[in-house]
Amino acid sequence: MTINALLPLILFALISTITPGGATTLATASGAHFGFRRSIPVMAGCAIGLGSVACAAAAGLGGLLMVLPALQTAMKALGSLYLIWLAIRIGLSGPPHLSGDMAKPTSFIAGVWMLWYNPKAWTMTVVAAASFAALASSPATLAVLLGVTICLVAAFSLAVWCVLGQMLGRLLKTAWQWRVLNASLACLLVISIIPMWRG
User: Fold this and answer.
1) Residues 114, 23: contact at Cβ < 8 Å?
2) 11, 119, 184, 189: which has the highest count of C-beta atoms within 10 A?
3) How does pLDDT run across 65-108, given as a tens digit for each residue?
């Protein structure tokens, strides 16, 4: 398979993963508070989480989720509560290393979980599976292709946001500047819940 054949999938994955949302906000906050290196576990968790959702969607689990509205609603509710909890942690934290609530970065497992309960991630990957099915000769091949491509592109997108967060963190000098940043990121995380409940 040539890179030209993959370019539409790569572009789709880039647009889907680099636009602001819960994972990008979390990567930004982690970069600001902990720097790039200590944020790698949560970024890897989010990227691998989205890649594994793409694999499952291509293998057929995504279609099952789309026809079970009760399961979707339960996932939305759990996901919303989790994002609100993360937003509260971020919003109440102070400058790096001074707050017990944000004393350590979000974990790899939390990053994976954040993507698996998110119906928006499932919808995006189901659309990708339907749109790019012609790139693969079988559902298993499609699952691997989508999973690897989306995982790698998501890792890049999250790294960009994390670096931006780290750069922003270096500019902040006072406690009130950190409070403004933390409150802003917390609000963005809560706002990222809204698209989950549309449609």
Assistant:
1) yes
2) 189
3) 667 778 778 877 887 888 888 889 888 877 775 444 456 888 99
